[in-house]
Amino acid sequence: MGDAPQLPGLRGHAYAARSSFRQPARLITREGGEGLWVDIQNDERAVLGSAHLSELRIDPPLGSAPRKVTFPDGAVFETNDHGAIEALTGRTRGSVLHHYEGFKPRLFGVVAICLAAAWVLWRYGLDIMASIAIVFTPPAVIEQIDAGSMQTIDFTMAAPSQLSDAQKADVEKVYRRLVRSLPQDVQNKHSFDLLFRDVPGMGPNAFALPGGTMVMTDAFVKEFPEPDVMAGVLGHEIGHVAEQHGLKRLYRSLSTYILIAFLAGDVGPILEDIVLEGNVLLSLSFSRAQESAADEYGLALSNEAGFDPAGLKVFFEKLSEKYGDQQPAQWTSTHPSSAARVKAIDAFIDGL
Amino acid sequence: MRASLPTGAKPFDFTGTAKEWFGIWIVNLLLSIVTLGIYSAWAKVRSKKYFYNHTYIEGRNFDYHATGKQILIGRLIVIAALIVFQVITAALPILGLLLLLGLLFIFPWLIIRSMIFNARMSSFSNVRFGFVGTVGQAFLTFIVYPILTALTLYTTFPILDRAIKRFSIDNHKLGQARFNMEVGLGPFYKAFFVAIAWVLVVGVIGAVVTGFNFAEFADAMDNADRAPAQAMKVMSLFYLLFFVAFLPAVFLYQALIRNAVYNNTTLEGGHRFASNVTAPKLLWLAVSNTVVVVFTLLLMLPWAQVRMARYLAAHTGFIPGGSMDDFVTQQQEAGGAFGDAYTDLEGIDIGLPI
Fold this sequence. Notes:
The complex is a heterodimer. By secondary structure, chain A is of the alpha+beta class. Chain A has 12 helices and 11 strands. Chain B has an 11-stranded antiparallel beta sheet. The interface between A and B is large, with 53 and 68 residues.
């Protein structure tokens, strides 16, 4: 622009309405009616656009990118004279944002707040979001989730139970005693059905579905017929249901996935894998926390119902005996190690 | 691979800086977190606009025109659909399977909507881009061809890759001018074989040098419980070989294909493009970027992005058929696809690696 004639006004380039021809131009302001009129004039003094200041769309500042002013008829003026545009618009919301984006020591503060906010969001925010989502989930849908899951389980891995009616009745008796000890509102909220299945791939196990359906494997009833042990494990699973761990986990993983997808943007192929893997590892600690919480709930419940809370301990001790020290490292696991859980149970019993 | 762009090529120029982009990025991130992700729609616009605005050819830059509100609406639609789908799959598995089948047909439609949106929201020198692909084409390219490719055990992968590139490029317009890619299968198969040759040669040499073999690997994996140290050793050796043999092969392929595609793409009116990226440099950038970003807990991500954008821009060129002003004047006369209001478009934007 060095050898351009020195004319008054704000220098830049312009496109006339519906044109892509880029020409040197000036932005000129003059008093007109209420407030300022703005004209674009090219070097031949032809007016390419004209409008009231309030009708202009001025793109907010973004780094050192040229500022762009769009007129109502589509004419566009761009300039690198950031100061002059800011003088024209005054302080806007966009300029506040731009101000805080500046690479100044203050940005360290933004980084720190950002890390803290990310941690708070991960630690508390996601749980709050999940709880809100749970409130809005109709009970019919949750029941249907249970029914759907049972269909899938029956289709893929489970066979009908081989247990005798007497064996089933024994378990049912323990289970109902536990359920009756629950607070009335919790009892009403969930179905608490008890189902028996022969699941060879699962070993001695019991699991609960989000709506309250409880499934016990034949192997469990055969290996642990003692009512105290049964009460310990069932109490643990009731804990998962009462504290809605299943739904929380479902919503949590859904919302983390969406958040990561939106926040991270395109971080590139290798990094994306690292971020997602990191999230999986972090959510494992969440799962371990749920298991510990369910242990505690189950212990309190079986104690309340008149069972010996040490029953759960027997279960873990027998498991460790059978499977030895094949347990993977704690941080790669969805469950805390049996040793850690036994220790927590001892602490609970001591506290009674 | 030529060392420099052909004469007459105007190189792309990326003028963004890591410092500036870092400030924008971190503020975007903070606002997105405290608004539980809602602001991320506006953040996306700001990010995209930053990279577009700072990319120049001959003093003219690109621009991105979408608003945060459009992106937010598009995302809400996608999330709502996702939630409904998730709930239905969990509650009624059989209906879920049917829906999955329906998704095969919805997916091409989403791709088209997203490409139309992105094209129309982008402009160069005040000329908007456009996209004219049809759902039928997308269905063939993204559903039928991949299935056929899988049936040939991926020996026809270069054909699929060319079809995807062709779908994307040939359907784009700048103003009224169509893009056109004329690449034979030769360059695609050449890149494919070069990449496979790398994997084989480096893999065999690596296996000989390190004494790695699959029988030992399988054996160690089966006995991971009893001899974890041995399993660890074999496992890390496996990963090392994987990185040395596969990662460079991927970048080799990408660099060759990028050059072949750009060097054979034209824009109606006698304009051409050029690219001369090299695989070693791409690989170096990607690996060093990843290492730096991981060790700075993602904080150097903006630096890495700017570094990559600079390299790609500097090695991409536009060869105008006439003068730059002639080109844009033609667009002016053609009219039609200029900056009209596209605010009724929903901002569905599913990232496609094209």
